[in-house]
Amino acid sequence: MSDRLKRIxxxxxxxxxxxxxxxxxxxxxxxxxxxMILSDQHLLTEWGYFFQHPTDAVSDSWTKVSDGYVAMxxxxxxxxxxxQAVRPLENTxxxxxxxxxxxxxxxxxxxxxLFNIGGQSQLIIGAVCATWVGxxxxxxxxxxxLLVIIAGILGGALVGGLTGLLKARFGAHEVISxxxxxxxxxxxxxxxxxxxxxxxxxxxxxxxxxVKNSALLPAIQGSSPEVNLSTVLAIxxxxxxxxxxxxxxLGFRLRALGSNPDAARTAGISVSRNQVYAMLLAGGLMxxxxxxxxxxxxxxxxxxxxxxxxxxxxxGITVALLGRGxxxxxxxxxxxxxxxxxxxxxxxxxxxxxxxxxxxxxxQAVIVVFVAAxxxxxxxxxxxxxxxxxxxxxxxxxxxxAVDSAAEAV
Length: 410
What we know:
Blueprint: H1 2-15, H2 18-38, H3 41-48, H4 54-76, H5 87-111, H6 119-136, H7 141-170, H8 174-192, H9 229-247, H10 249-259, H11 261-266, H12 271-294, H13 312-322, H14 327-350, H15 358-372, H16 374-380, H17 401-409
GO cellular component, one term: plasma membrane
Subcellular location: Cell membrane
Keywords: Cell membrane, Membrane, Transmembrane, Transmembrane helix
């Protein structure tokens, strides 16, 4: 099972190209438009008498789809009619920030041949540590925020490192151990928020004490309160992971480990030690997601609940795959998903009849399906790899491999 899973994931990463990714997005937009039409009963009625009045169905369908995607754009990027025209872009950044950390937490160990599916447990334990530091101590704001960030990183790294240790020491497959740790962490969270040490005495529901105001991430000056220090941390994380994987000795060892563990071992690289390092770093990145959840703006109460994870750990897997495992690609994929989430809310609120937000979920899923099956996209668009022969250069209709080579270099 382990070798087969790695071959599938490696195939997704290596076979995917920039061209295929863009075409996958185009296909998902088309399918999303079809779903908008199918969700409108009036349009379905018009299509029922298409041969009598074909222009009615085509015109109204185009209006429905175009209005939906325009509303999505206005809700995700720029709304000229809003009081703050760039506020939608800020909403996109807010939604994308935790996905950057989550995507990097999957992409980094994947380069070392490990599949981190334990983001949920790493986030939860990171949140437990960050929340405890946040409501226990009374400190000046800069120091308190710093300690909350460190606590979140250490909590996530603890769980990630445990997964790596089980893999390195006992050969336990990281997917199996991560799934088990996810269940354990959920149980620990459900128990902790009911204990006297964590439960908010002013609330009857299962929720922890809120962190103090001095532990909240400060907003970036000149922006809305929702855009805070976590966005800066996300940019730093992308740069650090890029440098780590392309310029550092540790990054070389991790990449060698992911390419061929036996060859890496023969070259004197400690496989077990570097497996632990990879999962430690991944857990620390998921710990930063916990900080954005608790001390950022994603949790209005700034406290822990049983819905703390909100699926971010698993969404990070799709972001990492869409970003082809590259730090910059992960950041762009996170922005795309953030834009779809923010725009989907606006689309649902602005269209009549309402376009359900579920359309956005389907679009996201379709993107991932096509990215995971690049051969399908190549067949749909008739992309072929025409190789040069001795008689001269044949015109190529294959995906832009030069762009991919440049992306690999970056």
